[in-house]
Design brief:
Length: about 260
């Protein structure tokens, strides 16, 4: 098996960027989900409730610097090193983040049609992975959900496409927001893995990923439908949840790349 695609999402819930290789940190891929959006009370704003977030894309320009673009070609560069206000945020285990304010918030709020604040996670080592999500003492995560990386399998995607049948065209894996997409293997075989070595980096499987309504948003049109949750509920439902992909925590830092070997263990 090989890595066929790597993707980072610099701003939580915005569209991400494909990369050829990425540094693996204890908290996730370099530049992945260190930024997020909150409302005036510090509550998370995500695409689960607001489809339009996926119409904006984010590109990391360096440590603490991000470029956010809309589909009309307008963009804004934001540098967290320019300072900001420390505010309380409700990302579990995070506590506080740096709010950039000013032009960034105004630019985002106009395009999203709601009051939004852009925040930065200054220290990615402070947010623990809960034990109920497979975390062990010392495990940390960016602003991502529950684990540093998400891995999905093309074989599992193909099986899901067969289940959805003629109701929808082939599902874009981006719906599931994986960091790592791999080829080969039997559908859903990844769920039995204790861990996996990608290139020279070992990862522990912390949990199978339960899926939410965000997967029902078509990435291009931003229109919600019934798939893939309907088919996952028919074939992949247990404990009142639907499941697709696995969450991974690195055992040590390193670097992974497209075409790297994938060895389960």
């Amino acid at each position: 098996m090989r890595v066929t695609r790597l993707r980072v999402y610099p701003v939580k819930s915005l569209a991400g960027t494909d990369v050829e290789s990425a540094e693996v940190n204890p908290w996730g891929l370099d530049q992945d989900r260190r930024w997020g959006l909150v409302d005036d009370r510090g509550a998370k704003i995500t695409a689960r409730e607001h489809n339009q977030l996926l119409g904006l894309s984010a590109l990391a320009l360096g440590d603490a610097v991000v470029r956010i673009s809309d589909r009309a070609g307008a963009q804004i560069d934001v540098d967290a090193r320019n300072g900001g206000e420390t505010i309380a945020v409700d990302h579990a285990g995070q506590g506080t983040a740096i709010a950039l304010g000013g032009d960034a918030d105004a630019w985002l709020s106009v395009r999203l049609g709601l009051s939004a604040r852009l925040v930065w996670q200054p220290d990615p080592t402070v947010r623990p992975i809960p034990s109920e999500d497979g975390g062990k003492p010392g495990d940390v995560v960016s602003l991502a959900d529950s684990a540093p990386l998400l891995l999905a399998s093309q074989s599992s995607m193909q099986q899901l496409d067969e289940w959805t049948g003629d109701d929808v065209s082939a599902l874009d894996p981006v719906r599931f927001r994986p960091n790592v997409l791999i080829d080969g293997g039997e559908p859903f075989a990844e769920e039995a893995w204790t861990g996996v070595t990608i290139g020279d980096v070992r990862f522990r499987t912390t949990m199978i990923c339960d899926r939410c309504v965000m997967t029902t948003i078509e990435p291009t049109t931003l229109v919600r439908g019934k798939e893939p949750i309907r088919s996952l509920a028919a074939h992949r439902r247990r404990d009142h949840k639907t499941w697709f992909g696995i969450r991974l925590t690195p055992e040590y830092p390193g670097r992974i790349a497209v075409a790297d070997s994938v060895e389960p263990w």
